[in-house]
Amino acid sequence: MSRAALCIEFLTLFILMPLGYRFSPRPIPALPALWLVTLYCYWQLRRDSSFLTVLLWNPRPVLTQLPSILACFLFGALAVWLSVRFMAPELLFSFMRAHPGFWALVMLFYPVLSVYPQGIIYRTFLMHRYASLLPSGLALIIVSAGAFSFLHIIFRNPLAVALTFVGGLLFAWRYSTTNSLFTSSLEHALYGCWLFTIGLGQYFYHGRIRLN
Question: Which domain holds residue 38?
């Protein structure tokens, strides 16, 4: 695929489609849209003879990475808890208290239906497909995080964009150092589930049930 075609594809997938979703005059179901893009990315990866399909799972690095993952998560979770506790205490664990059944469903299905497909798109696909366009692994990590963050304009609040850029840097770095989408997705799921649990899920959710 030519460099020009790759640039057009990147612009379409990671800039124009989030903008189209954000400014669509009619609501678009988020998960079906996410999975359509995921299937396209998966199809392109499977067609690429230079891509190793083991990278789509590869759980082996989890055990060696777990101490680092948990240490980072404990620090991040504490920082988020303190921020909510002092800046918006009314949100603290509000979703879990108000809708315990729905909260449990989110904890169960969010990693599978949302985290893993995002990992395919923003880590495995992006960092393999566009490696030839970028000068270094660090540039790939930054672009991955930027695209991941930009997707979250669909939630129409700056908090989602800011937090996902920081998270995107961590998840892309974890993927690049482990070649394990399972490990990166596990870390992503920890933070996402914590944000829903702590009461910030309303900034990352489209749906009819109020989360607070």
Answer: 3-204
